[in-house]
Amino acid sequence: MISYHPDSRFLTDFASANLPMAQAMCVSAHLEFCGKCRAHVQQLKEVGGHLLSQIPPVAVEAGSFEQLMSKISEPQSAPVASSLEARTIAPKSAKETYLPRSVRRLSNGSLQNLGWAQFGKALRIAPLPIAGETLETSIYDIKAGGQMPEHEHRGEEITVLLKGSFSDADGTYSRGDFVVRNAGETHQPTATQDTDCICLVCLERPVRPRGWLYRLLEPYMQYRLHSLKRAATAS
Amino acid sequence: MGNKDETSGNKHSLSKGASLTADPWEAALHKVAESADRSAFQALFEHFAPQIKAFLMKGMSSYADRSQAEEMTQEVMIKVWNKAASFNASKASVNTWIFTIARNTRIDFIRRNTRAERKIEIEDIWHEADSPEPIVDFQQRRVEVEIRNAMSTLPGEQALVLEKAFMENKSHNEIAEELDLPLGTVKSRIRLALNKLQILIDR
C-alpha cells in the first residue's frame, strides 16, 4: 500500500508544469503507482482548463488559420492517432515492467544499460544524466537486508520506491511511496530482508555521510558518480 | 451497499444533465477526428487559438516574442488536429484537454531554447492521456462542474495565486518571491483555494 504521497505543492507545480524536470520525473513515477494522486493531477488540470477559458484572448494574425491548414495538408503531418504508444520505450524484460516511463527512456529499457558504481556490498548507484539540470538524479539499488551509511541531507531529497521496500527510524516505505527529506535531517535506510530495493532519488545537494569511513570515501564516491555521469552524458 | 447505489444513480442523472448542457466543443472535436472536418476545426481554431496565444504569451514573456507565440499557437492547434481521436470526453473537458496540450507544448519550447535534456520525451513525464482509471472518471466530471462553479467565489488573493501558477507558469517558490510572501503562505493560499474547489489533497 502506498502511504507517502507528494503534497499539494508538488502536485500543483507538477500539474502546472513548473517543477524542474528531475523532480517532475519523481512525481510522474509516483503517479504511475498511485491512482489517487493521478486523480488529483487531473482535477488540477481542470483548474488550468477553466482558467484558460477565462483568459483575455489575444487575436491571432490575419491568415493564421489558412497558414495552419497549409501546414496540416503537407504530407508529413498526416494524422498520427496512436503515436503516443509507439513512442514509449518498452521494458527489455518482464522483470522490469515496474520501471516508470521516464526511467525506461533514460535507461533505454533496462537498468542494466546504466553505468553503475558499487559502494560497499549493499549499495550501488547509477546516475541518470539529465542535461541542464542542477539536481542530482540517480537510481539506487540496495541489496535485500542491506544498510546504507547513515547520512545527513544538505538539501531536499525525494525518493520514489520503484521496487522492494526500506525502513528507517521514521517508518517503512514500500513500492510507489514518495518520500521527502529536508535539509538537516539524518537517516539510515535499511532495505527489507526479502528483496532488493530499487529507488529513484533526486537530490538538491549531495548528502553527507556521517561515519568516518564514509567521510573518507565521500570524495571518491563523488568522483565515481561524476565520471559515470560525464560518460553517460557524452554517449 | 447503499453508497454504491447512490453513486450509480448520480452517474445516470449526471450523464443526462451533461447531455443537456453538453460541451459544444466535444462535437466539433469528434467531427475533426472522424471526418477531418475543416469547418468544425475552423470553429475550434477561432475560439481556442486566441486563448492559447494569450496563455503562451503570459507564461513565456522571457522566452518568446509575439511571433513565436503565434507560431507555437499553430503548433498547439496542429496537435489538436492530429490528436482529436484520442480525446476522451469521459475524462476531461475540451478546455482541459487543450490546456494540457498547450502546457506540454510550452515546456517543450522552453526546453528547445535552453540546454535542457532532449533524450526524454515531454510525454514520458507529463502524460497527455493518463492511464485508464474508470473509478475516478465519474468523479472527474463532477469535480469539473464544481470547479467551474466555485472558481468565481474564491477570494482575490486565492484566485491570484492559482492564476500565477497555471497561467503565468510560476512555481510556489517563484510566486512567493514575486509577491514577497513566505513559501508557507503561498502554499496555504493554494491549499485553501483547492479545498474550496473540492480538490482535497491530504498534505
Task: For this entry, give a set of tags.
heterodimer; A: 235 residues; alpha+beta; Jelly Rolls; six-stranded antiparallel sheet; three-stranded antiparallel sheet; 7 helices; 36% helix; globular; B: 203 residues; mainly alpha; Rna Polymerase Sigma Factor, Chain: A; Arc Repressor Mutant, subunit A; 71% helix; 0% strand; disordered N terminus
Number of strand segments of chain A? 12
Mean pLDDT across the residues of chain B is 81
Widest β-sheet, arrangement of strands of chain A: 1-2-3-11-5-8
Order of helices and strands of chain B: HHHHHHHHHH
Number of individual domains of chain B? 2
| CATH class placement of chain A | Mainly Beta
Span of the ends, CA to CA of chain A: 38 Å
By secondary-structure content and strand pairing, the structural class of chain A works out as: alpha+beta
* Percentage of residues in helical conformation of chain B: over 70%
Strand residues, percent of chain B = under 5%
Oligomer: heterodimer
Task: State the order of secondary-structure elements of chain A, H for helix, E for strand.
Answer: HHHHHHEEEEEEEEEEEEH
Kindly name the structural category of chain B.
mainly alpha
Briefly, what is this?
With 235 residues, chain A is α+β, with helices and mostly antiparallel strands. Helix content of chain A is 36%, strand content 21%. In chain A, a hairpin with a 2-residue loop joins β6 (165-168) and β7 (171-174).
